[in-house]
Specification:
- This protein has 160 residues and is α/β, with parallel strands linked by helices.
- The protein contains two helices and eight strands, in the order βαββββαβββ.
- The protein folds into two domains: 62 residues, 2,3-Dihydroxybiphenyl 1,2-Dioxygenase, domain 1; 64 residues, Signal recognition particle alu RNA binding heterodimer, srp9/1.
- The strands form two sheets. The chain has a four-stranded mixed β-sheet, covered by helices on one side. Strands 5-8-7-6 form a four-stranded mixed β-sheet, covered by helices on one side.
Length: 160
């Protein structure tokens, strides 16, 4: 297999992952991103858990009474992010409890490093890291509302 790309596979990003690159169709509308919205019972408590325990940063918060303005009213919608992962948290609306999200890390070693960080922070670890037969090291953690973050990184096997 050659390292050169044919015209139907030319693209402007590196290849740490496998995905299709369909031929360009100017009439086709393509998504440029996505942000899961998770229903949470207590948004201020969830924001504390996502920032102080899971290591996310708050991008913004919204209150139905005052929008994005600074106010003493508790937020009803918020966006958090860590790295390239962006999540929205909605106070008792938009979806239901118990959603699953798969989050990618660069390597199995990063899964172990994140597990150590999360164990020290008191994260709800549903399943510690383990090697899966499909070539990924994975762990599962949960937030306050039972949403599961399934986190994995590829294993690097040395040839025998």
């Amino acid at each position: 297999m050659s390292d050169t790309h044919t015209s139907d596979h030319d693209h402007d990003h590196a290849h740490p992952h496998h995905h299709a690159h369909p031929e360009s169709d100017p009439a086709r509308v393509e998504f440029i991103g996505g942000r899961p919205i998770l229903n949470v019972a207590d948004l201020p408590a969830s924001l504390r858990y996502y920032t102080e325990t899971l290591g996310f940063n708050v991008s913004w918060t919204w209150t139905n009474q005052a929008g994005f303005s600074a106010t003493s009213a508790p937020p009803t919608l918020a966006q958090v992010m860590r790295g390239h992962v962006v999540l929205m948290l909605a106070h008792q609306e938009q979806g239901g409890p118990g959603m699953w999200l798969y989050l990618d890390l660069e390597s199995a070693a990063e899964v172990d490093k994140l597990h150590a960080e999360y164990a020290a922070a008191g994260v709800r670890i549903a399943e510690p890291p383990s090697d899966r037969p499909w070539g990924v090291r994975e762990m599962r953690v949960q937030d306050l509302d039972g949403h599961t973050l399934r986190i994995g990184g590829p294993l690097r096997y040395e040839p025998a």
